[in-house]
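Board notes (copied after class):
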Amino acid sequence: MKKFMMISFTALVLAGCSNSGQENSEAEEAEETDAANEAAEQEETDTESEPAQEEEQQSDNAAAYSVNEADASLQAETETENPAVLLTIDDAPDTYGVEMAEKLKERDIPAIFFVNGHFINDEEGKKDLQAIYDMGFEIGNHTMSHPDLTSLSEEEQKTEIVELNNEIEEITGEKPQFFPCSVWYEYGVFKSADGRRDMIWMNWTYGYDWEPEYQNAEALADIMVNTELVRDGANLLMHDREWTNEALPEIIDGFEENGYDFIDPDHIESN
């Protein structure tokens, strides 16, 4: 997983040198004294910084979520200051995935982009995937060809998932760790230890952008923010679509106005 970088401090180490068989001059002794004082001051500063840095680390990890084994939904593991939702973009990178990533990056909003293999089978698709990854977004697996997995054998299901994992790793250098199991959760590969491949399987809470009445930015933004299904830990399903791309800034604004934060995929624990 992509990790947000933490600032660390390295203590200054000084080594004193002596002239063999000769006494140090007063000037040299003064320089050594100054250097020693400087080192002591630096060490004191670093020591004083440790509690603040530790507090920052604890705060950064405070909003930890896990995946509920019963239905693959997200649930908070620790008490959080504000409720939060997870943004996921499926069927990427089709046409608007890079632009959606740019909008999220500009607002410093994390998300998972779930990739389909047929969108990265040419150089343009590979370039788009690399661009999204380079912006710091988590890349998830959404199968090679987006089939109905319930109609496939377990071996065919594994092929759909494992081949795409390998393809994405070849492009980005990192193997996906998330899979949106959805209604497929009860089938074959999802109960196979071998098929899980150390991935985190999750289910989305709600989504609307495939329904005709919500295929415009205004209606989609309104329902995504104000649906009765919204809750802390909700997994918001969206797609690489024109109207979703247009609605994205308003969706972000709506959740922020309602006091919601956005879940960092790095804070989702394996189930």
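Comment from the instructor: The longest strand covers residues 84-92. Residues 26-60 form the longest helix (35 residues).
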